[in-house]
Amino acid sequence: MRMRQWILAALLAGACAGSRAQDVPYQRIVRADREPQSWLTYGGNYQSQRFSRLAQVNRGNVAQLRVAWIYQPVRPVANLESVPIVADGVMYITEPPSTVTALDVRTGLRLWSWSPVLPKHIVSIGLYATSRGVAILGHTVYIGTADAHLVALDAKTGAVRWNVPVADNKMGYAITGPPLAINGKILIGTGGSEAAVRGLLDAYDAKTGRRLWRLWTVPRVGESGADTWGPGAAQSAGGTTWNNGSYDPELNLVYWGTGNPAPDFNDDDRPGDNLYTCSLLAIDPDTGKMKWYFQFSPHENHDWDSAEPPVLLDAVIAGKPRKLVVLANRNAFYYVLDRLTGKFITGVPFARETWAKGLDANGRPILEPNQQPTLGAGTLVYPSITGAVDWSSPSYSPITGLFYVSTHETGAYYIKGTGKIEQGGQGPRGIVGGGGIRALAGEQSYGAIRALEATTGKRKWQFRLLSPAWVGTLATAGGLVFSGSDEGNFFALDAETGKPLWNFYMGHEIRSNPITYELDGKQYVFETAGNAYVAFTLP
Amino acid sequence: MAFLASVFAFAAGHKGAAAAQQSAPAASAPSKSAGAASGDPARGKSLFEQNCSSCHGVDATGGEGPDLHGVPASLGDEAVVNIIKHGIRGTAMPMFFDLSDKEAADIIAFLRSFDASATAGTVKGDPKAGKALYESSGCSACHMIEGQGGSVGPELTRIGAMRGPTSLEDRLIDPGANLPQNGTGFYSSKWTEYLMFRAVEKNGHVIEGMRVGEDSFVIVLKDGSGKFHALWRPDLRSLAQEPGKSLMPSFKSALSPAQMDDLVAYLMTLKGAQ
After folding, report:
1. What is the CATH number of the domain that holds B74?
2. Does a structural domain hold residue A187?
3. What are the tens digits of pLDDT across the range A39-95?
4. A391·B6 Cβ contact <8 A
5. Is A286 annotated as catalytic?
6. What ipTM did this prediction achieve?
């Protein structure tokens, strides 16, 4: 009885928090840094820095962190990669494949849950049906679903405001990445390069769900860039936009990365640079027009998408204040670009790579010979297909000036196949592409959290992990970097030295980027593992 | 982002598969007709690429799972069909209950195209004499058969359904050879459990044993007496693999060739409880 009353009180507290009006207007997100008690976007702020000013948990006391609550979905889930949004006493999580759940942030109890009615057979080629998170704007939360719909839900109740198809899942389009909510608009990308779909980025009216514009990321015959595809321009495919983008409210520019051209590994039918695949696009969100692009890996054929979240930061380079966009690319190079113009400033490898001698003055890779996929036994190339980093997000601390990235150190044999990719229609077991890989054995691979000087890419320290991890990093003003391992360690490192300060074994692989927020004067850190969503705080 | 999906989808799949297997009745009789002769290697290649290459490599020379060249020849087709359809319990090798006998035969034909010469070997000895040797040689101190015995080495209850005479003999003669060294973490092959490690603590104390668990902060070793040691990695002076080593002694000189044949014949009768 007592227990029940307590729960009721907790629920009421939650409801009270809720009735503090779920309202996150655009201006609040612009100033996200001023309310570190919340976590308002996938990347923590529009700049995707994943840095928090909260410092209550710090080097001195992080060892005392303990579990505050654990939420587990009603039915067990697989591929849990959800990064929550925390606002006004409510935490919005996703449960794979496409469920949105609102939790009372104080207790972890569920307030509401919404699931789409998904088709029996979801086409997911080269990706798995999961969701990395929602976006919030005003009184509404937004999710992209496994069957490539964009859905707007009432933040208080989960009621559907609108639900629009973004693209046809039967062709292989599917959404795992979170939407980006800016002033009055919701931007959303999709995956599906392995199904040979044509990459796109869409903007929708936040209120009505009406599509405002669509940007195709690969040109067809007659469009600008089509000459970089040879005869392939008739069928150009790939360049999907399956991760999250960043936004500069002052410049009013959105930055979004694109994936590999299709088919991978076998490039016979697509001679040329294959614009705008493996690129960073700067887009005017009012028109959907590209302002500039920077292609990291021209004519890519190792599956090194450039969909990693771009991080926006301001810093002084050679005595001049510069507006920068930096990105640790799956191709193992770390890039610093001018975010006004897209001009290349510098780029260096941050992990072992054997495919390029370096970058030229414009940032174009100078290729090593014999590093392309070959027929038969294949060619050993570093990094492996999973890249030096994949979709997990890095972080940047304006205090240390360091960029923290969870790095994969491994290579693979790349094998060119003879099969042609066909659009959509593959069976559930179908894994297609123009070839395949043979990864180096596990013991020959490892992972590391690496701290790079953000303006140069120079490595300051590393903390070695047993295996390559798929967990982003979180930097805090408490002098800490949080991240996780593939074996299930959730840990904190000293942001200056990389020294391990805390480790909690979560009992299952970790696959989500950690976040932090504050409640009732207490700082919380949050991570997921296996089937569990876990909040930590000091005693 | 090709292939990630395959790796993870399988990873998720095999966990489920392993769990399901625990409760499923032990293997039904494999089909007799699944000989390589009836398989189509070209179809097998494509099936292999779709279902197996993420672990065994596109060319079947290994990765997360072992090298499969010569495996149908040394294990025999029946055993391979059995492995494909039922997986290997407690390991990362999933079951493919949805592959038909014909498809399994196609895959075997593809695997056989790499090495036509190796053979599974034939059962030559007397299983009754072999059983007696098993009991007198101390095998059961380390191995379990149908719940009886020790747990230093792998369970042998179904070993005859999963291995052929030649590969069993190789194991008895040269244990530790060809133990896969790959794979750590959740979805790794169980074989890696038998890889030997040598850890030296800060005070110089040495612990040698098989790695039964490991993460970025801790490694757990099981020594020859079955004792577990959980070691905090940042505190170790050194930690090294000992490839080629095994806790299992070689029986090369302890057994005559005829006794070896008998023992193998006995092991080949172990096909799991019906």
Report:
1. 1.10.760.10
2. yes
3. 999 999 999 999 999 999 999 999 999 999 999 999 889 899 999 999 999 999 999
4. no
5. no
6. 0.83
